[in-house]
């Protein structure tokens, strides 16, 4: 489950440029030649939950937290269940990190 950890690291860095954040995520989610198909499938599933929340994250950030979509809620829950540092980050910090991908 590398991807959720990378995502949270992105969220907590905050000051890093969006391009650097996106390339950091892309480099880890693509998998290497030594990655097994099982871990690749698992990682891809995790990425999909978070990436599917981008539109909801945009609405959440633009509305200053007033609009909370189901996909964003699922991504926030997923990150907090799988990445200990996500429990410390606010919803808006995580939503902004999702948008930076």
TrEMBL record:
Organism whose genome encodes this protein: Lysobacter arenosi
Keyword Acetylation recorded: no
Residues of the signal peptide: 1-22
Pfam families: DUF2388
The keyword Signal is assigned to this record: yes
Biased composition (Low complexity): 26-45
Protein name: DUF2388 domain-containing protein
Superkingdom in the source lineage: Bacteria
Transmembrane annotation, as ranges: none
Keywords, comma-separated and alphabetical: Signal
Cited InterPro entries: CHP02448 (IPR012661)
Start and end residues of each stretch annotated as Disordered: 26-46
